[in-house]
Amino acid sequence: MHIVTLAGGIGGARFLRGLRTTAPADQITVIGNTGDDITLFGLRVCPDLDTVMYTLGGGIDEQQGWGRADETHVVKDELAAYGVEPQWFGLGDRDFATHIVRSQMLEAGYPLSQITEALCARWQPGVRLLPMTDDRCETHVVIDDERGRRAVHFQEWWVRLRASVPAESIALVGVESAKPAPGVLEAIADADVVILPPSNPVVSIGTILQVPGIRDALLPKTVVGVSPIIGGAPVRGMADACLTAIGVETSAQAVLSLYGSDLLDGWLVAPEDAGVALDGVRVEARPLLMSDPAATAALARAALDLAQELTS
Amino acid sequence: MHIVTLAGGIGGARFLRGLRTTAPADQITVIGNTGDDITLFGLRVCPDLDTVMYTLGGGIDEQQGWGRADETHVVKDELAAYGVEPQWFGLGDRDFATHIVRSQMLEAGYPLSQITEALCARWQPGVRLLPMTDDRCETHVVIDDERGRRAVHFQEWWVRLRASVPAESIALVGVESAKPAPGVLEAIADADVVILPPSNPVVSIGTILQVPGIRDALLPKTVVGVSPIIGGAPVRGMADACLTAIGVETSAQAVLSLYGSDLLDGWLVAPEDAGVALDGVRVEARPLLMSDPAATAALARAALDLAQELTS
């Protein structure tokens, strides 16, 4: 059985680790969000792809959920000593090496998909990890604070401002001309089921769905999503700030409606959200907290079971 | 009194530290060798400029003579884990930050001279440090080993092969179209004396002298050189391998003749080389070993005294 998942960062990566215990890894293709990619110090940083790669490859900082285990920060401190901005993005030394390799390969003309494959040759995540696109399109956020109304890179809003300033709007700049990366549409066409992990529905899953061709390719497929919202609050992260920015309530119901019944066939919600419903979508209540490997595996199993049930 | 010096790496940097104790630092302009610059992992590395900057700025690894004090090597080890080449060039984490800043500024369009000034704003070397040129020209060496006859970058011969394979020839690729960096010819024109430290006469001083316009500008000046050779052997490093490559004997006499009486007015040799002579050049014997700060300062003082004597 071929499985395709769309994934953002921490939540998606953890879910995938569970999914990998319930299905053969080589049957899983992950389409990763690249909308929060950013060029820092001249180096190309792909936070979500790296979080998936490090998590599935055994190199992740488990406590933090992103970045490398046993990390040091010598380069970052030295850059700060030179007065180089930004100083609010926490790149560690081990992580820097990844960005140096990626940037060197980009400069040499390789597309991000081939670079991701090359990096994964070291990390052996088991699953096949594809960027949603090889084209550069970055999420920007319009904010209005003491420095005035302006668009900032998603990372500046998310990391520097910790989403404390309301986002007036969120836009994936450049998406109109972006094409799905090689292998993405093929993997979807070949998929028996598609799983949407509890990643951010706006700036992770929502971003991937904006790449022309991806959403359309998913529509005829059996798609099961896991709600990233439990009882009116994000499981983790600041998805509520993103939902508010696009005028969507922070609830399992609202995210279900956002994805829509044309996309979704099944929807897993937490027991406290058992009343959630949408015509044409099978909603089931399951424990959603990925509190430990067993709970995470059980959640992935539940999503996969529902998907298989819906295909039969 | 305005002083100009040409400098390579370790030897030049140590000499400059002595010179700075005998003359006001703000009267000293250093023209640094950039012929051994190299792009590694997509980052621009300027070993000689950095050795001068770190040495005069108090950041050098004193034992090693190059690289940063208290250095770590996390990034290098990670790059090796990705299988990225070359693995024979020992970049430390602190040092990496310098190359990241430099590369980012180059990418943004700044010339190396302005970048060097920006980096020196942190290090405060006291002296004014100028690259010999803003144009890219790199030293290559023709060798013939078990992999066949081929040209390799100077660093590959020097660092990876430790100059163990004879150099058939040495060429500064691209020098024909290189221009002296802004400020270089002006500093020479403005100089009362010019000092050549005991840097490598082929791949450091010799390289700087090849940049069109620099040697000609130096000819009318009072130039005093310090022999990098004592009694038939280099004071440090592998200058003999470079001299052999260009058909010059490894001796204080031969290097004196190489520089020539049109360039040099004074030449300091070690006591054991007291017989060295060339028409038109005042040769004096002095202890040349920079064994400690006092000896280094005395050597710089001797060079400066001779230069002043020759101008009066």
Can you give a write-up of this model?
Two copies of one chain form a homodimer. The first copy, chain A, is α/β, with parallel strands linked by helices and 312 residues long. Chain A has one domain (1-59, 112-312): Rossmann fold. Chain A is 38% helix and 19% strand. Chain A contains twelve helices and 14 strands. Chain A has helices at residues 10-22, 47-57, 74-81, 93-107, 112-123, 154-160, 184-190, 205-210, 214-218, 239-245, 252-259, 293-311; strands at 3-7, 28-32, 38-40, 43-45, 128-131, 138-145, 148-153, 169-173, 193-196, 223-226, 229-230, 233-234, 266-269, 282-285. In chain A, strands 5-2-1-9-10-13-14 form a seven-stranded parallel β-sheet, with helices on both faces. The first copy, chain A, has a three-stranded antiparallel β-sheet with strand order 7-6-8. A two-stranded antiparallel ribbon of chain A has the order 3-4. In chain A, β3 (38-40) and β4 form a beta hairpin. In chain A, α1 (10-22) packs across α12 and α4 runs antiparallel to α5. The two termini of chain A are 13 Å apart. Chains A and B meet through α3 and α4 of A and α3, α4 and α5 of B.
Biggest β-sheet strands, sense, barrel of chain A: 7 strands, parallel
| Overall structural domain count of chain A | 1
Q: What is the multimeric organization of the chains shown? A: homodimer
Main-sheet strand order of chain A equals 5-2-1-9-10-13-14
If helices are DSSP runs of H or I spanning 4 or more residues, what is the number of helices of chain A? 12
Radius of gyration of chain A: 19 Å
Q: Any idea what the CATH architecture of chain A is?
A: 3-Layer(aba) Sandwich
Q: Considering residues with a beta carbon less than 8 A from a beta carbon on another chain, report the largest interface and each chain's count.
A: A-B, 24 and 25 residues
SSE order of chain A in H/E notation?
Answer: EHEEEHHHHEEEHEHEHHEEEHHEEH
Work out the strand percent of chain A.
15-25%
